[in-house]
Design brief:
The protein has nine helices and eight strands. By secondary structure, the chain is an alpha/beta fold. It starts with a helix and ends in a 5-residue tail after the last helix.
Length: 249
């Protein structure tokens, strides 16, 4: 457990340094690659030293990769959206941690390509799998654009045992406009009745060729429109954490 916490802290510090100084870095893409490499190094350098510790990791530790919405890509962490208010990013991560999950996340740079960023997350997941973390203990949670990135992670990882929670990130038009998404894993789709950016994604599930052993739609009615995913609401966070815990009912 301490090794995993160390990994999370060190990776977060690297990311914080990068985004603070990225304007001074001419080779920012090489820097991003370096950060990914350092993340992998930390994963392999911090392996538990005993078989008992490995068993504890496999049985107890649950990882959540959290991918935030588009608004935070182009605004500061505490910026106020004119309609939906502040993104409760810190509160969301803290709630995951308070419930025993290892939350891995970063504030993404501006206007990242969803597929390219999904490849970065997929490589990090591969590193955890190589470090004997069971796929069922890894969940990718994404809101809005983060949900689309998470769908690409599902496509790239192609692992039926991984867990995914897509929040406010499916429209029926996606079937024609984003045909290259092919889900794989256990999928929970959460959407808000008053939000035009989310509906049942059963058509995507049916169109996906990979095994999806567990699939569920949850429709909320908070009245907050797309702003529901700006908040650390139990309405979506509790189902997401239950899914990450393997409760697919």
């Amino acid at each position: 457990m301490m090794a995993a916490v160390f990994i999370e802290m060190e990776y977060s510090r690297l990311l914080e340094f990068y985004f603070k100084h990225k304007s001074k870095l001419k080779l920012k893409f090489k820097m991003r690659s370096l950060l990914s490499a350092l993340f992998l190094l930390l994963l392999f350098c911090c392996k538990p030293s005993t078989a008992q510790n490995i068993d504890n990791k496999q049985n107890d530790e649950k990882y959540i990769f959290f991918l935030h919405n588009r608004f935070l890509e182009t605004n500061e962490i505490d910026a106020i959206h004119p309609e939906y208010g502040r993104v409760e990013y810190k509160e969301i991560l803290q709630k995951f941690k308070d419930n025993g999950f290892i939350a891995l996340s970063e504030k993404r740079p501006t206007n990242v390509n969803a597929f390219d960023y999904a490849q970065i997350i997929s490589r990090q997941i591969d590193s955890l799998l190589k470090d004997n973390v069971p796929a069922k203990s890894i969940t990718v949670v994404g809101t809005s654009k983060g949900g689309y990135i998470a769908q690409y992670v599902s496509t790239i990882a192609n692992n039926p045992d991984l867990n995914f929670v897509f929040i406010g990130s499916f429209r029926e038009s996606d079937m024609e406009q984003i045909p290259d998404i092919n889900w794989c894993g256990n999928v929970l789709n959460i959407y808000e009745m008053t939000d035009p950016a989310g509906i049942s994604a059963l058509s995507r599930k049916k169109a996906s060729s990979c095994e999806i052993a567990h699939y569920k739609d949850i429709e909320l009615n908070t009245g907050l429109q797309h702003g529901f995913l700006f908040k650390a609401l139990d309405a979506w966070m509790v189902p997401a954490m239950n899914w990450a815990d393997g409760d697919y009912n």
